[in-house]
Amino acid sequence: MDWTSLPIEPLDKLAQTKMQTKLDQLAKPINSLGRLEELADHLAGIYHSTELDLQSRKCLVFAADNGVAQEGVSATPQKVTAIQALNMLAGHTVVATLAQTYHCDIQVIDVGIKSDLDSAAIVQKKIRCGTADMLVQPAMTYAQAQQAIQVGFDQAQQAIEAGYQLLAVGELGIGNTTAASAMVAALLHTNGSAVVGKGSNISSQRLKHKIKVVDGALSRAALPFPLPDPLVVLQQVGALELGAMTGAILGAAAYQKPVLLDGFLSYASALLAQKLRPTVLDYVIPTHISHEQGSQLVLQALGLKPYIDLEMCVGEGSGAMMILPWLDGLQTILQQMNTQIDMDFTYFP
Ligand SMILES: Cc1cc2ncn([C@H]3O[C@H](COP(=O)(O)O)[C@@H](O)[C@H]3O)c2cc1C
Ligand SMILES: O=C(O)c1cccnc1
């Protein structure tokens, strides 16, 4: 299905009201589950039901290389993208270990790793062998930006059609915090110093250089504001894996399933998704607050308030996994708790 042609349905307000009534009738003080109640109401609105089945879940990890890595913006050599993609399949990355612990399936999708990986377990959707260096030329063509969104959308559609009830997005791509920062700066009409952070932990000196690279890429791209077409941001200063994440977020929304965000890279992708389809955020579940510098700015722009703050900034989808035990707890509460009726009492606040 062409990602531009499916509408995004509004949330089911009646189911949300029913969920709040159900929560209020449980044998616990009213509102005492705090933000877990907000989460429950949100999910009821997505599922059109107060019965939550959150066990069938999948994390889609999009991997690609970034040409801007050649500008010395990362602490890590580019080959680590491919190495980590293989480690992911072997279960040895942060997200893979957490996914295993919290019972989440995981899939790695190659949308632009520079080298060809010899593994049948990686979904092959390579759009090109890494982006071009955004400091000197557009990161990709407009058609490739569209393709990146479509690949992510298709992966979400396929997962949902296979029966998954809950999706999470993650990524791998050395240099992609530079692309995400540039995308956020362009979409929010600000500059490098407002959004650039230390990514995979660069020195303060390298951070100054990274800000200059982002500002340089933005001035090369000379994007108009307001932007007539947000996809041009992806084309000019984006990343293939971030475009695919955007597509997966749009796909989850189009097929009416919740999508768990991860950290800064997923916020940048969600911001692009929101610029393309403002109501997509109805289906987006924020999970953790990334420690990356620009996070608060994007979260505020998105109006999202994540549930967890562990000061994590790994990426890969790892932060999204941290909310899974909470979702399990919520599901058990709804299924197993006594109600006031069972206990023969009513509240008199
Ligand atoms: C070993 C390793 C594992 C990672 N897993 C995720 N990232 C994270 O760091 C990368 C982005 O940071 P930057 O823009 O600074 O290169 C992405 O791959 C992101 O997923 C990792 C980074 C490293 C080094
Ligand atoms: O917020 C993130 O997900 C993040 C931040 C820095 C590096 N990698 C990922």
TrEMBL record:
NCBIfam families: cobT_DBIPRT, PRK00105.1. It holds the Pfam family DBI_PRT. Its EC number is 2.4.2.21. It is an enzyme of class 2 (transferase). Pathway: Nucleoside biosynthesis; alpha-ribazole biosynthesis; alpha-ribazole from 5,6-dimethylbenzimidazole: step 1/2. GO terms for biological process: cobalamin biosynthetic process. The keyword Glycosyltransferase applies. It comes from the Bacteria. It comes from Bombilactobacillus mellifer. Belongs to the CobT family. Keywords: Cobalamin biosynthesis, Glycosyltransferase, Transferase. InterPro entries: Nict_dMeBzImd_PRibTrfase, Nict_dMeBzImd_PRibTrfase_bact, Nict_dMeBzImd_PRibTrfase_N, Nict_dMeBzImd_PRibTrfase_sf. Catalyzes the synthesis of alpha-ribazole-5'-phosphate from nicotinate mononucleotide (NAMN) and 5,6-dimethylbenzimidazole (DMB). It catalyses: 5,6-dimethylbenzimidazole + nicotinate beta-D-ribonucleotide = alpha-ribazole 5'-phosphate + nicotinate + H(+). This is Nicotinate-nucleotide--dimethylbenzimidazole phosphoribosyltransferase. The gene is cobT. PANTHER family: NICOTINATE-NUCLEOTIDE--DIMETHYLBENZIMIDAZOLE PHOSPHORIBOSYLTRANSFERASE (PTHR43463:SF1). GO terms for molecular function: nicotinate-nucleotide-dimethylbenzimidazole phosphoribosyltransferase activity.
